[in-house]
Specification:
Number of domains: 1
Strand order of the largest sheet: 2-1-4-3
Number of helices: 4
Strand content: 15-25%
CATH topology: Beta-Lactamase
Helix content: 40-55%
CATH superfamily: Haem-degrading domain
Number of strands: 4
Length: 159
């Protein structure tokens, strides 16, 4: 008798729990990743730089990789380390903007990342869905400009 008295309450609670929506997850599609990479490469080419461009998804898995003719093998590894940085910290690669030149980094060195600009998060709102990382231009700020050109091309799709 005691069990039958609480059965309706248990059923209501179970139904309410099932009625809750699952969280939605945005994903970086291959089509969008290809546009980002192509545009980043085009920007660097237009500026005269031979680079590698890497686009990864939210799991830091490779979606697109482009290596321009004339870019050296170091750009392959550095682009990976920049993407790793973005996915680890959720922000553009490189030391914090307010860090004085020559000052020690405020966080530990982590194998597989590099504290150089050129890796940029791909976000929809506050949700990190991937990263684009460019390596090979003379200076990380130029790599970052190419990466940002790729993101600008798909800005409407990232809303």
């Amino acid at each position: 008798m005691l069990i039958s008295r609480f059965a309706p309450l248990t059923l209501v609670l179970a139904t309410a729990a099932l009625a809750q929506e699952l969280p939605s997850q945005k994903v970086l599609t291959l089509d969008v990743a290809q546009v980002i990479a192509q545009e980043a490469l085009a920007k660097c080419r237009a500026d005269g730089y031979k680079v590698s461009v890497r686009v990864v998804d939210a799991a830091n898995m490779l979606k697109v990789f482009l290596r321009d003719e004339g870019s050296n093998m170091v750009t392959v590894e550095v682009s990976q380390m920049k993407a790793n940085y973005v996915m680890l910290y959720g922000r553009p690669s490189g030391p914090p903007a307010n860090l004085a030149a020559g000052a020690p980094l405020p966080y530990p060195s982590v194998p597989g990342i590099i504290y150089a600009a050129g890796g940029v998060p791909i976000k929809i709102g506050n949700q990190l869905i991937g990263a684009v990382a460019v390596s090979g231009a003379p200076g990380g700020e130029r790599d970052a400009a190419c990466a940002n050109a790729g993101l600008a091309k798909v800005a409407e799709k990232l809303k």
